[in-house]
Every structure is written in structure tokens, then in C-alpha cells.
Design brief:
- There is one protein chain.
- The protein is of the alpha+beta class.
- It has two domains: 263 residues, Alpha-Beta Complex (Naphthalene 1,2-dioxygenase Alpha Subunit, Chain A, domain 1); 109 residues, Rieske [2Fe-2S] iron-sulphur domain (Rieske Iron-sulfur Protein), CATH 2.102.10.10.
- The chain has eleven helices and 20 strands.
- The strands form five sheets. Strands 13-19-18-17-16-15-14 form a seven-stranded antiparallel sheet. A five-stranded antiparallel sheet has the order 6-3-4-5-10, with no helix packed on it. A three-stranded antiparallel sheet has the order 2-12-11, with no helix packed on it.
């Protein structure tokens, strides 16, 4: 069914291309400047969105083989992602049960055991406490109680989601709203991680607004990647997640039988995973995507984005050279165009130059995104799962 949906989306865009039209929101939409500048609201967003929602913490390729691990600290929360001997990806709080020391510094590596650097307690890849230093002298206690706190985790479509609350009861599959079935057509579980890097940006919503916006492409990026791009965009929603497409990107498929449409063309566009992921396709040394993983910083006006450049297959030397040129270009575009502008927007909003941001009828994706942010700030824990029961195009309305 997901393949049929993809084909339907292409047909929909071809019809709009032929008519020179696009889907539009019912009206323009205002977002108060305080949504980007207020520290109290920012802290609520961290607590009620980023610490309650499933987050895409790693592409599967980053912890691809048994024994691989990744340690990270989103919003100061120490997380350890591992892949066990059984091939299953798991996520834990990176905190020893003894005193809470972190078992691994931030980064990736390979290990079958994690030894606490403070007192030498040892854990396996399944989070079990398997060794206590000087155990005869320490005393008796229930080792199961001091295992690493497990985080709700789901690996799907070559991506790893986890909730940063060990006691969360959110249904991750319901949250994905069928979007993972669509993403599965990338086959990311077979892709190669070429490289990654981190960029500093403005408030996380200022940054994320750009990922949902094709309106700016032929203007801000006129000399880099957007000179020949149409500003028109159609948006397709699965719960809070959205795919953004340009009608003109499918014109060449009009005269080709549907069963011969290349999957690379069918999957083009920008796929955003609420609240912090963007996936955009590019060609450089072979078929590739840039996965942008956005996290708020320590203050309301700061964010950090990890850019992962993924490739459909491991490139040869010529492919590596082409991929490096493409990835460097994308870093420059985001850092020197998108985020440079975003930081200036942040400065103006902080200064009170405008009391709101305006989203046009042609910027439906941004309107939906901010609607979901507000909805989640107003939804208590016991009603969260009920929000994700309508995985259809209008679910984000």
C-alpha cells in the first residue's frame, strides 16, 4: 500500500505541474515571536516535546554491527545506544547504577562490555550488570535493579527511535503514523554512512521552518542549489510528519509508464520526521541523502544540527571524491545561507523588531508544524497516544 501511496503522490504532483498550481492552506498563519524567544516556553518544549516524543537518535548504519555503540547527550541527557549479539538495537541511560557515572564519552565505537570508569562496574550490550568490582566486599544487592535504565526503542526503516524517558508509555508505532512504511522504500538499513558533522544554528523552530520551506529556494539559494528550483510545494502529512515535494520535479515522469518510474525519482523531495529530522535527496558520487538531526541548544536562541551524509552503496574513490564535494557544498549552503539567515532572524526577533512570524497559504508545512508544537504543549501525558490514531493526510490539521 505504501508504494501505491507514493505513486499517488507523484500523480498528484504531475497534475499540479500541468495546471501550474499547488495545494494551499485555507489562510495565512501567525506565530508569535515569543514562540522563538521565550525561555519559559522553550523549557516547556524540551520537557513536553523532546523529552516525551520518540526521537530519531541514529541511522542504523551508525551502529550497524553487533558490538557497535553510540554515546550522546541530547539536552544533557546521557544516552547509550548499543547493538547486541542478537542484532537488536537498544538504548539506555548512560549512567552506572552505582553512582551514575557515564560508561562512555560522547562518540561511537565498538565494545562487548562497558566498564564504569569510576569503580569498575561492568555492563553488557543488553544493559545487564555483569560485574561488580570487589563484589565480596561490596555486599549483597539485587543486580537486576541496577541494570542500565532501558529507554523505549524502535528500529524501523533503517532508523533508530527512542524516548528519553525510561517510564514513557507512548506508542512509538502509533506516533510514526505509518510514515515508517513510506520511509522503508529508501532501504536505509542497507545504506552506507559516508560522513557526519555538526553545525550551530538558531532556535530549533527557526531552523526547522527552513526544512519545510521551498519558498526560499530560488531566492536564498539562487547561487548554490536553488537557482532553477520552483518555490511551489505540496505537503503530505502522516500524523505530525510531513513530506514536501515540488510539482516540477516529476514532469519528466509524465510520459513514462508508472511501473517504470525509478524509485529514486518517486522518493524525491524532503521527508521531515517530527520534531527534529529532515531527509533530503542529492546526487554526488552516487545516490545519497543528507539526514539533518536537529536538537535545541542550552538556550532558546541556539540549536545544533548533525548532518549525516548517507549513500546507497559504499563508493569507490571517484565516488568518495564526488560525495565529498556534494557534502561540503551542503554544509556551506546550510551554514552560510540557511543558518546565517536564521541567526539573523533570531537576532531580530530577540530585539523585538517583529511581534510575529507570518506563514503564507503556500507555506502549509510550517503552519502544520507549529500547530503540532502547540498541540503537544497542551496535551497531558495520558492523552498523548490518542493524538496519533489518524495516520492520513489530514491528521495534522
Amino acid at each position: 500500500m505504501s508504494r501505491e501511496k507514493l505513486v499517488e503522490i507523484v500523480r498528484h504532483n504531475i497534475e499540479h505541474y500541468k495546471a501550474g498550481t499547488m495545494e494551499q492552506a485555507p489562510d495565512v498563519y501567525k506565530v508569535p515571536a515569543s514562540a522563538y524567544t521565550d525561555e519559559a516556553r522553550f523549557k516547556r518544549e524540551i520537557d513536553l516535546i523532546f523529552k516525551r516524543m520518540p526521537l530519531m537518535l541514529a541511522p542504523s548504519a551508525e551502529v550497524q554491527n553487533p558490538g557497535d555503540y553510540k554515546a550522546m547527550t541530547p539536552f544533557g541527557t546521557p544516552v547509550l545506544i548499543t547493538r547486541g549479539k542478537d542484532g537488536k538495537a537498544r538504548a539506555f541511560m548512560n549512567a552506572c547504577g552505582h553512582r551514575g557515572a557515564q560508561l562512555r564519552d560522547v562518540g561511537c565505537g565498538k565494545a562487548s562490555r562497558f566498564v564504569c570508569p569510576y569503580h569498575g562496574w561492568t555492563y553488557n550490550n543488553e544493559g545487564e550488570l555483569v560485574g561488580v568490582a570487589a563484589s565480596n566486599e561490596f555486599g549483597e544487592f539485587d543486580r537486576d535493579e541496577y541494570a542500565l535504565p532501558a529507554l523505549p526503542t524502535l528500529e524501523r526503516a533503517g532508523l533508530i527511535w527512542a524516548v528519553l524517558d525510561p517510564n514513557s508509555t507512548i506508542d512509538i508505532e502509533a506516533f510514526l503514523s505509518g510514515y515508517d512504511d513510506m520511509l522503508s522504500h529508501f532501504n536505509f538499513d542497507k545504506w552506507h554512512l559516508f560522513d557526519s558533522r555538526v553545525l550551530r544554528g538558531p532556535n530549533w523552530k527557526v531552523a526547522y521552518d527552513g526544512y519545510l520551506d521551498f519558498y526560499h529556494l530560488p531566492v536564498l539559494h539562487k547561487n548554490t542549489i536553488g537557482g532553477a528550483r520552483s518555490p511551489q510545494a505540496n505537503y503530505y502529512a502522516w500524523g505530525p510528519h510531513q513530506r514536501v515535494t515540488s510539482p516540477d520535479r516529476y514532469a519528466h515522469l509524465e510520459k513514462i509508464p508508472e511501473d517504470q518510474w525509478p524509485m529514486e525519482d518517486v522518493m524525491t523531495g524532503v521527508w521531515t520526521i517530527f520534531p527534529h529530522i529532515s531527509i533530503a535527496s542529492f546526487k554526488g558520487g552516487g545516490r545519497g541523502v543528507m539526514i539533518s538531526q536537529l536538537f535545541p541548544g542550552e538556550t532558546v536562541g541556539e540549536s545544533f544540527t548533525t548532518q549525516y551524509y548517507m549513500m546507497e552503496s559504499e563508493p569507490d574513490q571517484a565516488g568518495k571524491d564526488g560525495a565529498r564535494v556534494q557534502f561540503d557544498l551542503l554544509e556551506n549552503v546550510v551554514r552560510d545561507e540557511d543558518y546565517k539567515t536564521g541567526l539573523q532572524v533570531q537576532q531580530a526577533l530577540n530585539a523585538g523588531a517583529r511581534n510575529h512570524s507570518l506563514f503564507g497559504r503556500n507555506e502549509w508545512g510550517g503552519q502544520r508544524f507549529h500547530g503540532w508544537v502547540q498541540r503537544l504543549l497542551e496535551t497531558p501525558d495520558d492523552q498523548l497516544n490518542a493524538l496519533f490514531q489518524r495516520p492520513d493526510r489530514q491528521a495534522a490539521e
